[in-house]
Structure formats: C-alpha cells, structure tokens
Amino acid sequence: MVSVRGAFAQITTESNLREAHFVSAPPARPADAMPRPIVPQQPKAPPVVIDPVVSSLLPSVSSETVGLKDSEGFGADMWKGTNRAVAERLLSMVAPTGSPVLNGLVLRLLRTSAVPPEGDNSSSRLTSARVEKLALFGDTAGAWRLARQADSKFVDGAAFLAAAEKAYLAGDESVCAKVSEYPKNHPGANWQNFTIVCRLRAKDQKAAQVALDILRSEENHDSVFVHIADRNILGGAKTLPQPLSPLTLESIGLLQLANLPVPDAVFARNDAGARALMRLPAQKDATRLAFAERAAERGLIAPMELADAYRASVFSVEAVASAQSSNETGARLRALLFKAAEAQADPDAKFALAARFVQSSSASFLNGAGGVVAAMLGDFEITSAMAKNAAALAHIYMLAESPMARDWFDLAKVSSPLCDNEIQALWPQFALAGLETEGAYAAGFSKWFASAVKNADEATLRDMIAPTLLVFEAAGLNVPNAAWDRVIAAAHTEKKMSISPLLFERMLAAAASSKHAETVLMAAIVAGNGEPSLTKSLGIISSLREAGHEKEAATFARHAVATFYKDR
Predict the structure, then answer these.
(1) Mean pLDDT, the chain, as a whole number?
(2) Sign of the CA dihedral with 268 first, then 272, 278, and 283 last
(3) Could you write out the three-class secondary structure of 116-179?
(4) What's the pTM value of the predicted model, to 2 decimals?
(5) What is the 8-class DSSP label of residue 463?
C-alpha cells in the first residue's frame, strides 16, 4: 500500500563561524615619559552612494479583483498558474455537489478578492460567472453585493438581472427601489417582467396593467407570467395556471405575491435557488420540508434556515406533546421532533427526541444538517448523570462541528463500559474529526479495528472496513501494516466511477502545483451531485490536503466514512 502522504522536506540551517582577532599589547614606556594624549580615531564614513532616480508606474489593480471583504478568502494569488480560459471553463462547469464541504469551499473561492488569472480578458465573463455561481450555490445576498460592487463593464446585464431577481426572491425587497435605474448601467437584459413584479408589489396596479398589456402584445411573451399577474394578482383568482412551466424567476416572484399554495412539482426545481422556493406556500407541508432538507443536506441553506422551516410547520399541541411516539415519517417527523425538543425543558427528554431525529436521518443528511440536531439540545450541561449518553452526544455536537464534541467524547471514554459500543461504532468519525488525541490514537485505532474485524464477513471487510482505512490514509492518519494485511484480500469493487480521467488527473496535478482555485473547482466537478465513489473521494481528500485545505479534507473524509456505515 503506497501512502498518499507526501514526504516533508528536511530543512537545515548553517551558522557561520567568525574568527576572533587579538591585538598585542604596546611596549612599556619609561616611567618619566609623559603620556601622549590619546586622540580617538573617528571611523571613516562609508562612501555615499546615490541611487539614480527611476520613475515608473505602479502595477495597476484590475477591477476584476473585487470580492466580498467580510469573507474568509483564499488569498489574492489563488489563480496563480491558472490560465484565464481554463478558469472561465471550470466556472461554467461547476455546480452544487452532494457535499456541503465542497460547496462551502466553492463559495469561499467565489467570494475571494484575487488577481484575475492571466490571459485574454476580452470575454469579460469571469466576474459575471462568479455572480451567477454565488447565487446558484445559495449565496444570493453575496451575489447581489458582488454584482453592485463590480465595475459594470465586467458584469453583463443578464447576470446582474438574475442576481437582482434572486436577491429579491430570497427576501431582499429593497431591490425594487432602484429597478428603474439598473438597466442604464446594465443593458442587454429584459427588465420588463421584473419591473412588473416590483410595480405589483408596490400596488401600482395602473402602471403594472399598462406594462402587462404591452407584454401581452409581444409574440413570444411568457404566458404563465401574464396569467399569474393578470388573473391571480390583479384579478384575484384562486386557481393557478396548470402546468406552471416554464417557471421563470419572475413567475416565482409573482407566486410569492399571490401567496397561493403551489403544486408539488414546483419543489422539484432548485435552479432558481432554495431560498426563493422555500418562501412559497405548498399544497403539502411534507413536500416543502423535504425540499428544505435536501437544500440543507447540500449546504445550500444554513441549518438554522432549516430550523425555521421546521418551526413553520403546523402540528397540534397534542402531537407535539406526544412526538416521541408519533407515527409521522420523514421530514414531517423530524419537524415534529424539532418542535417538541424546543418546547421541552427536561434534558433526558430533549436527548431522547434528538436521538430519534438522528435515527430517522440518513448519514448524508446529517452531514449537512447536523447543526439542527445540536440546536435541539442547546448548550447541554456536561454531568455524570448523562454519562451513558456521552458518545451519542459527542456524535451530535461533532455533526455541528461544535467544540462541545470533545468534552462529551472525553466523558464517553472514561465512562466505560457504558459507551464502549457506541464509541467503537463511531470511532472512525471521531478520529477524523480530531477528537482523539495524538497520544491515544494508536490505542484507539487498535481497539476499533479489532472490534470491527471480529466476525466481519467479506462484504463488511470490502465495503466498510477497507474503504475506511483508505480514507484514513488519504486524510493523513496512520494505518498500521497489520491492518492492511488483514484487509488486503478484500478487493473493493468500484461501481460509481463515472468521471473523465482527464479531469481527475488534472485535479491531482493542480493540487501538486498549488493551484488553489483550480483544485477546488475541479474537486467540486469531480464529486458531482450525490455521494461520490470511493476513488473520487480519495482523490478529492488527497488534493484538498495538498492544496492546504486540511480542515475541509478531514471533514470531507469524515462524511465519506459516515456513508460507509449508514445502514449499520
């Protein structure tokens, strides 16, 4: 087994030895001789060298270096070594993945103020692409801020309009205040429909009706948009057009104003942005909640936004009081458990509700929405009375990446044998999360591995234990040779490796060349939407580590390992 970890270069320093110079004593003078006054010698001043004056222009700062200052960026040189054409091509290809970690990295990249990549900038698409992708990855507010901050010549009209619309749809109603001014600096986009939305929002029905009449006279007008505006908003009709397709951003804006329950098919979309769709009333509460959970799973909305969706769900007082024995399933069950936990003061009852929430959830969902479970508990006081649940609580706070996870993990370790089984089941995740100390790692690994392989069949060795060792190695954790010897015959069968070998190898090469932005974009493209294959995961973990994203690599590795054990 060849380690994926690179060797560290040994750095040595040398010191220069300086010789000591001794001056011999002067000969003795006669006793009667008058001593001559000693005149100290002034050291010779070094010759004055006057450098010639050279005038030159300071290097110009490109307007494309614009970024969001309150974000944790990648550094001004993140595009160093990447050709502009490659950068623009990768930005056009990247889309939200199934990994909240990778999606978060892409968002950080898009927010970063950096020197643009070298190459022909005649297309001027780099900044426009950043605006578009920020919105696509869920940061509608950031996309709108970047669009307004950037030089208008670098943001085309279509990108600016889309950023404005998505910011409005996500709740920024101030966008409409200057809707008449935006087309002046950002021409080339059709602002007509969005202007109508803003006029209807302002209840300027006369102006909206005139604009609608003009729109209706156009040969290829949006019939769905006209129907909702004319019949449902101006006319007060309570029946929406069927089908609601094509459903444009402007039509979603009208649906928000109409405030009528929309059919389930609307929530099958996500290209308009999760926040926009979550503001629509649904015919079925479960459909809206499931959509919110999918968005949180991928990191497109924050866990607390999912919590708000849970809070908005309607349950009877009796249902909340008896949530632990409820027959609800899926997203509705989790919403009920969340509401019951918030209404509960007893720590044991809160924990029981949170535990059932975890049991009802998939590993991939918890990877993105783990913060919701921690919110159900709040800052749980660490007491010996909760020792029996310490491992489970460590798991919950680890999912939320809370520092409380370490305290609960430490309590679980000293609460043997109460937590032994749970610690062994979750130990790979605890280790990848950095909860196991360096000194205790070897003993912890040996104990976990012995427990894992005991009575393990070939399928378990192949599909769970061997992949876990590979992820450990990729993440930089030591795997003893004895462990490799035990699983070496368990050949893993790759079933989901469907990615261009060229992209995969280019990702590894970019990481080795410290091309930070290129590495992150290609990692997201390689991962795709859904759970990536083992081969993809190992390459992504290794590439992120080599590019300097150690924390994200470890979190991605932990998420990968969690999916190996999701059915156990």
Answers:
(1) 86
(2) negative
(3) CCECCCCCCCHHHHHHHHHHHCCCHHHHHHHHHHCCHHHCCHHHHHHHHHHHHHCCCHHHHHHC
(4) 0.84
(5) I
